[in-house]
Each structure stands twice: as C-alpha cells, then as structure tokens.
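Could you join me in thinking about how sequence relates to backbone shape in a protein? We need material for that, and I hope you will provide a protein of your own picking. Once you have written the record down, we can walk along the chain together:

…
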Amino acid sequence: MDFEIRNLLCEALNRSALSDAPRYERLPPFVRFRATSASRAWEAWRRVVEKGPNKVSEMLRTRSIVAFVNQFDELVKRLLPYGNESLGPEEAGTVAAHSAIWQAFELRQGVIYEPTPPLHRLLDDTYIADDVPIGAVQFPAQTLCIVPEPSSRGKGEKSDATVFFRGGQTLACVTWGMHGEKGQQHGVVEVVELPLDKPDQPIGTLLDELCGSSETYREIRTYLRDSID
C-alpha cells in the first residue's frame, strides 16, 4: 500500500508541476490543473489513501484552506523526504500545497468567473476594498475563481487569478500568479483567511489585523490588497 501511495503521489506531483509549462500560459490555473491530468492523478491517489482512515476528500471539502495547504506540504515531505526524480523535497511540498487548492476548488464545485474587458476596466478603476465591510461581500457561489482579462495577466502587479472559499466563519482568499523570467516562470500562491464574525469591519482593516506589520506582509501588502480588491 505504501509503495502504491508513493507511486501515485509522484505521478500527481509531476502532473501538477507540468501546469507551469509555457504551453498552458493562456489558461486559468484550475484549467491547467485539469489539462495536465493532475486532477485525475490526485483523485487516483485519494482513492487509495481513503482505503484507510484518512478521509482526504472530506478534509478538502470542509477544512480551513490554510490548514490543509500546510498539511499537504508537510505530508509530501514526510512521504517523499528526498523528493522524486523530478522535484526536490521543498519543490515537491510547494507543488502539493498548490495542488491542494485546486483539488478543494474542484471538490467544492468552484465556479470560474472571467469579467469581460469593459467590466474588468470598471472593476479595476473602482477602488473600494478598504471601505467595504466584510459583511457586505456576497458571491454567486461559495467557491469562486475570478480571472482578470488577458492583457492584465503575467505582469506581477496583481494576481492572475483570485480564488475565494467561503465556509463557516471565514473567507479564504487565494491569489495565484506566474512569476519569473519568460519561459522559466512558476506559479506563486498567497493565502489569507479573513474572519466573518465581525461583519462591520472593513476588508482592509481585517487584512491589516490579520497580517500585522510583519516584514513579509509589508512586501506583499499592495499585491494582496490590489488582488483581493
């Protein structure tokens, strides 16, 4: 069983890593995940794992996004302490963590929303995130991926896709973008979870309270806030 789990895990990791390839650069991240068959590879891995007591699919459907992203990173490093033939241990952990987001997106029946160019320009010029109370935020689906119009992608100023997972008393916000030199780009993900138990608090204030004044947050705050906006 352990041998089969590790073999299937290596296959899922390799297919997930393929989604950063230049041939998929025009596709949204979740579509890339399916185009490389990473979705099917992870499903095959989960089926074998779930013959035991670990109900991974249920965890991906219900648990905190931050929690399971970290768990997938740690799990892969434990099962593959030296990585595999294609990925070192740190890279394998990162690929697994990113893949957990897209597995959850699929299992939660996420919806992809691509604004038209005129609507995107209107949204882009409407800076409201700092003022809007978190309780006023409403979505057409509990799990939603918003993909900017093509001309704004790949610049690194904002995310190339922003995913929202609403569940219980939190709103998880995931930003995804391709970074690096042309032809050698890789996906970068940031994850924050905003509490929903203070409905009158503005989104910007919650972001500041959540991340504080850490050096890491200062470096990415404009990127995070503009992407979530």
User: Anything to note?
Assistant: DSSP finds nine helices and five strands in the chain. The first helix runs from residue 2 to 17. The chain has a mean pLDDT of 84.
